[in-house]
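Hello again, I could really use a second opinion on something today. I've been staring at a protein lately and its backbone has me curious. You're getting the sequence in one-letter code plus the fold written as C-alpha cells. I'd be grateful if you could look everything over and explain what you see. No rush at all, and the record is pasted right below:
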Amino acid sequence: MRTLKSAKAFERVFKKGRRGRSPFVRVSVLACEGPEQPSVAFVAPKRLGNAVYRNRCKRVLREAARASGLPLLGYDVILFATDRTHDASPEELRRGLRSALAKAGVGALRGDE
C-alpha cells in the first residue's frame, strides 16, 4: 500500500479534497492527477492521547483500509482517527469507513458488492 508522505501532497488532498465522516473515522479524498499511483495516509492527532494510543489508532485504521480494498484506483485518501477509533471493532470501523467514503463521493469498496 503506497502512503502519502510529503507535506505538499497532504496539503493538496486536504485543501482540494472532498470530506466525509463517521463516528469512527474522518476522510479526505482527492482524485489523483495524471499517472500517479493512488495513496493512503493515516493520521492520529495528538489530542487523542499518547504515542502508544495514537499508534494503535493508526494500526486499526491501516487494517480497516486493507480489508476494504484501499487504496482506491484513481484516488488519494487521508484517514483521520477519531476518539472512537481506538475501541471500535473491525466491523464497526469498516462500516464507518464505507459510510465516510460514500459521503465524500467515492464509489463501492471491496465487500460492498
